[in-house]
Amino acid sequence: MKPRQAEVSIPLQPPGRGATPAAGPDGQPRDYVVWSLVNVLLGYGLAYLGCLCFPALVFSIKARDCKVLGDLEGARQHGSRAKVLNIICSLLLVLSVVAVIVIVIIATTR
C-alpha cells in the first residue's frame, strides 16, 4: 500500500493582496474576543472603564457566533465593530493610567 501524500498549495499573490484586512491567515474573519476580554478586565480593574469596554466584548462574541454559523459577512461586520471599540477602549485605558500616574507624581512633589 502506497503512503498518501498531502497536497501543498503555494500562494502566488504577494502578502497583503486579495485578503480582507479583518481576515485571519486562513481567510476567516477575526473576532477579537481575547482582546475584548482583556480590555474589560483591565477596564474594571484599573480605571473602572469596563462598562465602556463591554460593547466590544458583545460584538466580539457576536462575530464568533456568526463565524461558527457560517455567516462570514456578519462576522466581518461585527469583528470590525469590535476592533474599533477595542481600539477606543485601549486608548481610554492608556490615557486613564497616564492621567493617574501624572496626578500621583504631581501630588507627591508638593
Write up what this structure looks like.
By secondary structure, this protein is mostly helical. It is 66% helix and 0% strand. It has 3 helices and no strands. It starts with 32 loop residues before the first helix and ends with a helix.
Supply database-style keywords.
single chain; 110 residues; mainly alpha; 3 helices; 0% strand
Helix content bin: 55-70%
Weakly predicted, low-confidence segments? none
Q: Main β-sheet: number of strands, strand sense, barrel status?
A: none
| Number of beta strands | 0
Quickly give the structural class: mainly alpha
Element-level helix/strand string: HHH
Q: Which term fits the overall shape?
A: elongated
Strand content of the residues, in percent?
A: under 5%
**Number of contiguous helices:** 3
Radius of gyration: 20 Å
**How many angstroms separate the termini?**
83 Å
Mean pLDDT: 83
Q: Summary?
A:
The protein has 110 residues and is mostly helical. It has helices at 33-47, 50-69, 72-109.
List the helices and strands and how they pair.
Layout: H1 33-47, H2 50-69, H3 72-109
Helix pairs in contact: 1-2, 1-3, 2-3
